[in-house]
């Protein structure tokens, strides 16, 4: 604050306190990851970013659909703001999950980042099924950290998510 009399800048005392984000400020992310260790890498990386996130992890496509449709043990689970979905999954493929999401009016507005392999055909199929992004899935801690920071910068800091109807 500037004092008009002497043009000095005065510090404003603001009490320091832990900032707890409100529930609407926390970004809910559904991570579909069959490898337990890789899921842990993602969870650790998301815990280290500035944007408050809540990571929900499932290990296959069938469970992802249960979660997204809020069925069974996932009946009270929050609707994710973002889904990280590999195409190569046990039980039900990521392609089938993405196709079902796009066919459901209640779910098709959820942004989906498809984690692909290096195959251009897989990337093309992801976009044909209306994925919001297709990214080659990282391997190793450093690459997961880089990917999570990129997701934070673009998807969590810049992108505006659609409001959810009650």
UniProtKB/TrEMBL annotation:
User: GO BP, one example?
Assistant: phosphorelay signal transduction system
SUPFAM superfamilies to which the protein is assigned, alphabetical: CheY-like (SSF52172)
**Name of the protein:** Response regulator receiver protein
Specify one Pfam family: Response_reg
Alphabetical list of InterPro entries matching this protein: CheY-like_superfamily (IPR011006), Sig_transdc_resp-reg_receiver (IPR001789), TCS_response_regulator (IPR052893)
Response regulatory domain spans which residues?
A: 28-152
Native organism: Natronorubrum tibetense GA33
Instruction: State the superkingdom.
Output: Archaea
């Amino acid at each position: 604050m500037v004092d008009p009399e002497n043009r000095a800048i005065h510090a404003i005392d603001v009490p320091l306190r832990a900032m707890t984000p409100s529930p609407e400020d926390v970004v809910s992310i559904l991570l579909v990851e069959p490898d337990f260790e890789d899921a842990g890498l993602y969870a650790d990386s998301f815990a280290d970013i500035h944007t408050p996130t809540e990571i929900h992890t499932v290990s296959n496509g069938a469970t992802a659909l249960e979660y997204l449709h809020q069925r069974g043990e996932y009946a009270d689970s929050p609707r994710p703001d973002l889904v990280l979905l590999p195409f190569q999954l046990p039980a039900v493929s990521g392609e089938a999950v993405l196709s079902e999401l796009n066919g459901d009016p209640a779910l098709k507005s959820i942004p989906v980042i498809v984690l692909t392999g290096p195959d251009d055909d897989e990337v093309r199929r992801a976009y044909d099924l209306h994925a919001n992004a297709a990214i080659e899935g990282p391997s190793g801690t450093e690459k997961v950290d880089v990917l999570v920071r990129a997701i934070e910068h673009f998807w969590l800091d810049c992108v505006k998510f659609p409001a959810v109807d009650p």
